[in-house]
Design brief:
alpha/beta, single chain, about 475 residues, 8-stranded mixed sheet, 14 helices
Length: about 475
């Protein structure tokens, strides 16, 4: 096969499903976040289109002809509707049929998408792709590391590569590795053997910090040596009730024995790390007490329990209420999703003072609404800030309002707090703030760690509660649930 003869098809279907979240994920959620028909993906990377973007970057050098299919992704939320799942899946498959024959299929997936009637959306898609292209075509996919890795996914793909980093700053880098490896297989390199080590537990693993940092670096250094092709640390997604829930290690190597030995050796080490990194985070009031007793500024609070990036509504008022009730000054919090409050603030205008009901609108996990007299300090139409891996994140129309010494960034498009620019766009000097609260679990770290004197992960109420024992798991394996 000559290099000029290689044809690659790439597409994306991705969302992360919090099966305990109150809002379903329908077609509108994909349309709002990103739903690009075949051939219309913008000229910029997004978090889950790493393989397509990488294929564009590599096309000339590798002599590829690229056929682009549907790219659809939604903000994490509750269970995906059957209609949304089947409609988008079938559009993608139709695009693949129209592109046939192809030599390589590259998919951008999440790995923790759960739909009404389908617990393993990625496994379902990969199986259908394989049925269309046959056994000889190379199928590769890039995954979020918060994946419910299933046997079905591994069986129907030739190569699965998960992000290494949390926060996910390496989507394009990992996509390039996937493209290069899959093209090499299509041009005659041996198809690697896969092995999975199941750690029979699940933990939040933050890659900037030890001992996780060292483990990720050691695994990466092993790739391309002694027969090891790829290693993916699968963290798993704790708030998805799936039979495949759990932390796992996925290894590809030139032979099954090497893959199995490496997977078991590193997997045992990973299990030991999981046992060692049980988090004990402070309550809201304990964190406030500590911040008020410190001269350090700013102290960044991560309100991961209300992280839209994990399926939460992002309108919870628990942290905001305590800041206001305790009379904390020099504090700023956001983004708090409240399109109604944003609209009212927009009508009132910058500088206005008015009574406003904030947050607490979606479900009991959001807490009660906060009623306060606010000052409108800033307004922005269709605010965009840096996201991850070179992407851009849209917050929609936004209003910065002040309740005494606490400023609140209200947004109309549900998203998590990726970047400090969501505050600095309004002229907020974060270095002068005592407390900065972002509604994010970890993706904020890439940006906020640059300005934080200290970072505190809160134990707060919300959809992504840290106490997994309070969640009604029905499908997850008993040994994983017992490890909480």
């Amino acid at each position: 096969m000559t290099e000029s003869a290689l044809k690659v098809f790439s597409a994306t279907l991705a969302t992360e499903t919090n099966t305990f979240a109150p809002m379903p994920t329908g077609l509108d959620a994909f349309e709002e976040r990103g739903c690009y028909p075949a051939g219309t993906h913008p000229d910029a990377p997004t978090l889950f289109t790493g393989p397509l973007w990488a294929a564009r970057l590599r096309a000339r050098a590798l002599g590829l002809t690229l056929a682009e299919g549907l790219c659809a992704f939604a903000m994490p939320s509750g269970v995906t509707t059957r209609h949304a799942h089947e409609t988008l899946r079938d559009r993608l498959l139709d695009d693949l049929r129209a592109a046939m024959p192809v030599d390589v299929v590259l998919l951008g997936l999440h790995g923790a998408m759960v739909a009404d009637g389908c617990d393993d959306c990625e496994g379902d898609l990969l199986e259908r792709v394989r049925a269309i292209v046959g056994p000889r075509v190379v199928i590769g996919a890039e995954l979020d590391l918060h994946t419910h890795l299933s046997e079905r996914m591994v069986r129907h793909a030739d190569l699965l590569m998960a992000f290494r980093e949390y926060p996910h700053v390496d989507a394009v880098e990992r996509g390039l590795e996937l493209v290069d490896a899959c093209v090499a297989i299509a041009r005659g390199a041996p198809r690697p053997a896969a092995a999975v080590h199941d750690c029979a537990t699940i933990r939040t693993l933050r890659t900037p910090f030890e001992p996780v940092r060292g483990f990720v670096d050691r695994a990466r250094a092993m790739e391309g040596r002694d027969g090891v092709v790829s290693i993916s640390t699968i963290h798993g997604f704790p708030w998805g009730d799936s039979p495949d829930l759990g932390t796992k290690l996925l290894v590809y190597a030139t032979d099954a024995r090497t893959a199995g030995e490496v997977a078991d050796r590193l997997g045992a080490e990973l299990r030991a790390i999981c046992d060692a990194v049980r988090e004990r985070n402070p309550s809201i009031d304990a964190a406030i007490d500590d911040a008020l007793a410190s001269d350090a500024r700013p102290i960044v609070f991560a309100d991961g329990a209300d992280n839209a990036g994990g399926g939460a509504p992002s309108d919870a008022t628990f942290v905001l209420r305590r800041l206001v009730e305790r009379g904390v000054d020099a504090a700023v919090l956001g983004p708090l999703w409240d399109p109604v409050a944003v609209s009212i603030a927009m009508q009132a205008g910058e500088g206005a003072r008015l009574p406003l009901r904030i947050g607490g609108k979606v479900a009991p996990v959001s807490g009660d609404p906060l009623d306060a007299t606010v000052e409108v300090r800033g307004l922005k139409r269709d605010l965009h800030v840096p996201g991850l891996s070179g992407s851009v994140d849209g917050l929609g129309d936004c209003a910065l309002v002040a309740i005494g010494g606490v400023e609140v960034l209200l947004n109309s498009r549900r998203t998590q707090g990726f970047s400090t620019e969501m505050f600095t766009a309004f002229g907020v000097d974060l270095s002068s703030r005592r407390i900065v609260v972002t509604k994010s679990s970890q993706h904020f770290h890439a940006s906020f760690s640059r300005i934080a004197a200290r970072i505190v992960y809160l134990d707060a109420p919300g959809t992504l509660t840290a106490d997994l024992t309070t969640l009604p798991f029905r499908k997850a394996r008993a040994e994983v649930v017992a490890s909480f």
